[in-house]
Design a protein that fits this description.
The complex is a heterodimer of chains A (371) and B (62).
Chain A (H helix, E strand, L loop, with lengths): L1 H11 L2 H18 L5 H14 L12 H10 L3 H13 L3 H5 L3 H7 L2 H12 L4 H8 L6 H11 L4 H13 L1 H12 L2 H4 L12 H18 L4 H16 L3 H25 L3 H4 L2 H31 L18 H13 L6 H29 L1
Chain B lengths: L16 H36 L10
């Protein structure tokens, strides 16, 4: 009977589907009304709603979500394409001009590994714990890339947690920074002048970064390779059109499909599990540990340098670019109106970008070795 | 305990927690060492290159 066909949708609609649609709706609300990471949360939100319409066929073989997942996520090309654009956007000058900031970027990656340990202690197997820990990379494409390899079933919650907490960096970081530093430390002024770096050095940097990182952490090569390819286009100055396309059209197009595809992985059956709540809870743990590790390392550098380093800049070692650098600048100015920490923080921030990629690649290598 | 020989994946609770924690600590320790090593080596290489390729008189100073 034809009416049975018409009613098949409502008949297959469960409370789980309704709840997922509500979650999709909340993400759309956050994106549209509150401006929380709208570029990602809008397509993810609608992707969730579409993925929870029963019998739509979008996730079945030949459907649009099936194809996007197959082509973009299972092959890991979407996050890699986005990395080309990110590389074209980033100026590594502040890092090269302030080389010591590289240590802060490395230290802040403790959030990834510390969260991994917490997840293991909570009973997650090591591969799932690592996929949760990578939320601490504070870098969406790295989180998606690593989670899609180590625990594809966790991709949806990990991606949404990573992007949501990145938007919440101005809320998560300041209390931790205040707690771990004294008023006197926050007032430490840092010089605005830095080493000068030639254009040649900036052009050579992406090539050296690919070779050094690739040789020491080969599994990080796809991520660092695409990141530095984008950066080489930017710094070379000879392919302006390509660089412009990478940081605009390419990133925009891939972001549309990446967001929709990540949303489509969040069906009621895969998302509505107790583990999902734990994943979101541990996302906060990851960002908090990142910040704490960066600030504590900044404190160590402060005392070792004879109080010439303001420990606040350690918080920018989190790779959430450029939000965490802005948070540092704001807190530094609040403590001392003449204290401009921005460029130091941007140095740590860009170091964190590279460090998070290295940490992701190292996780993949270590877990492949342990399996 | 042979960290390399232990099975990796499987539903939660299939491997003794102690061994998973041990492997987690191993991954954490080695992971942080690799991250610091790569970044320090990278910046050392760039410091050397920075000495060789000094900015010209018309290049913007940092």
């Amino acid at each position: 009977m034809p009416w049975k066909e018409l009613l098949s949708g409502p008949l297959h609609f469960t409370p789980g589907h309704a709840l997922m649609m509500l979650i999709g709706g909340i993400l759309l609300y956050l994106a549209i009304k509150k401006g929380v990471e709208p570029v990602l949360l809008l397509p993810i939100g609608l992707g969730i709603i579409l993925a929870n319409i029963p019998l739509s066929g979008m996730e079945e073989e030949g459907g649009i979500f099936y194809l996007l997942k197959k082509v973009g996520l299972e092959t890991e090309v979407f996050p890699l394409f986005i990395f080309i654009g990110i590389g074209a956007m980033i100026d590594f000058g502040p890092l090269l001009e302030r080389p010591y900031t590289v240590l802060l970027g490395a230290a802040a990656q403790f959030g990834i590994f510390g969260t991994l340990l917490v997840a293991v202690a909570l009973g997650f197997p090591l591969n799932e714990a690592a996929a949760i820990g990578i939320i601490g990379s504070a870098d969406g494409p790295t989180s998606i890339y690593v989670a899609s390899i180590l625990a594809p079933e966790m991709l949806g919650p990990v991606a949404v947690a990573a992007y949501s907490y990145m938007a919440l960096v101005p809320v998560i970081q300041p209390p931790i920074m205040r707690l771990l530093t004294t008023d006197a430390e926050r007032k430490i002024r840092m010089p605005t002048r830095a080493w000068s770096v030639s254009r040649t050095t900036k052009v050579i940097f992406p090539i050296v970064a690919v070779v050094v990182t690739g040789l020491l952490a080969p599994k990080a090569t796809p991520l660092i390779g695409m990141l530095m390819f984008g950066n080489l286009m930017r710094e070379s100055g000879v392919v302006g059109r390509l660089s412009h396309t990478a940081e605009n059209e390419l990133v925009n197009i891939v972001t549309i499909f990446l967001g929709l595809t990540v949303g489509s992985t969040m069906s009621a059956a895969t998302f509505l599990r107790p583990d999902t709540i734990l994943i979101f809870a541990m996302g906060i743990v990851a960002f908090s540990l990142d910040t704490a590790a960066g600030v504590m390392f900044g404190k160590a550098m402060c005392y070792l340098s004879g109080r010439r380093v303001n420990p606040l800049i350690g918080a920018a070692g989190v790779s959430a670019f450029p939000m965490s650098a802005r948070v540092v600048q704001k807190m530094g100015l609040k403590a001392n109106p003449h204290n401009h920490l921005l460029m130091h923080a941007v140095g740590a921030n860009t170091a964190g970008q590279i460090a998070s990629v290295v940490a992701g690649g190292t996780l993949l290598a270590l877990l492949a070795g342990l399996s | 305990m042979n960290l390399m020989a232990a099975p990796l994946a499987g539903p939660s609770g299939t491997a003794p927690l102690g061994s998973e924690l041990g492997r987690g600590l191993f991954v954490t320790w080695v992971g942080m060492v690799v991250v610091f090593s790569v970044l320090i080596l990278l910046i050392l290489a760039m410091l050397v290159l920075g000495r060789i390729f000094k900015p010209g008189p018309n290049e913007e100073q940092g």
